[in-house]
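Many introductory courses stop at the sequence. We go one step further.
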Amino acid sequence: MPATTVCRWLPQDPAAVEAFVSDLLLRSRVIHGRHPKTRARFAEVGENLETAISRTGIELDLSCLRQHYRLTPDQITFEREGVVYAAFNEMFEQAPPPQNEDQAKIEDYVELMEMINTNLTTAPSFGEGRFCRVFTAWHDYLTSTASTNVIHDGKGGWLSTEAINAMVQSAGGNPQQDTFDNFFICDTSDPHYGFKSYDELFVRELKAIHRAVVFPENNAIVNSACSSTVYQIYRNLKKADRFWIKNTPYSLNHMLAEDDYVDTFVGGTLIQAMLGSLDYHRWRSPVNGTVVRTRLISGATHPNPPPTYYAARLDDDHVDLDVISRSQDFVTAISTRALIFIQAAEPVGLMCFVGVGLGEVSTCNVVVKEGQVLKKGDELGQFHFGGSTHCLIFQPDLTVTPIDQNGQPLEGSKVRVGKDILTITKQN
């Protein structure tokens, strides 16, 4: 497995992914009025599904159904565009079957569209590995009160004992001793702990004691901007580099979207860390200073992309399905990202925080403005809906030294937000 896999958003076992896809596919077929095994139509558009299912003998937990059934108009476009239509059909013909012969396989693009329809009104339950990585239309549902249907203490719920323990442990607590409300701001008297949507739970706020800044007045120390696992420290950054090849370097011109400050950081140093699905998804200032500029960059919009711009690296054995975890450096140049340039107190000087939203839905929300004075630990923004990684970029005239974490090297360590991670000195 490649060294880039420091945080995972999919199960490492491909069989677990295939099992999830098969379950979603069978459920999607029923929701769209087709038999889960034979694919034969048993319901008409607009017909009540419970009524239709009662005639078929299909055994299914009816609580998973929504009382609608729709076909997407996008299929018309596919059928009219001959090249696209042929390519889509060939893609499904060439897809390998599941390892388990009893599991269902997506047969064509219509089934894929229907599965996307199904996901658009489904918030991720605890234990699922495919967090928030379909289309932007999911946004409306994940911010609605309807999405609280996964915030409960039953099996698969985000308030189940298993989920609560995992979130507490991710925040640095001991599940045997600490409770959720010890760490997070919430209302345990409410059935949903006071969270009005799945997204509110996703960006839950830590209590101040658990995001306290180490050495808040020491300007030579840079603190962690996020609760995350450190991927790597990369030195001698290039203005433009072949970021799409294996063992990808970083390309400042692409990462910073050709910003005027790109040349300032050429030859400098970068540290990158990835957030896990259970981590705290708010960003906090790693330095004392002043906001110089903020930018939001849409993903995959470079005007002259290289041929493999939309591809992502396979692992050596071609068995790891988690494209996010093994392509962290690659995505800094292509995904939706937030740039926050900060004029930090000396010796740091101008630096840049880069928040990278992974996948189609993941969103960056910047809450600071140009000219705003920052203290270490002040909130900069949040990731919403899905996977995320972030970078801190420093100028070339600095010596950036990692601080060991509990006797272990910084690279590969899980660090909480506010923890001291780097020391900075000016080069002579």
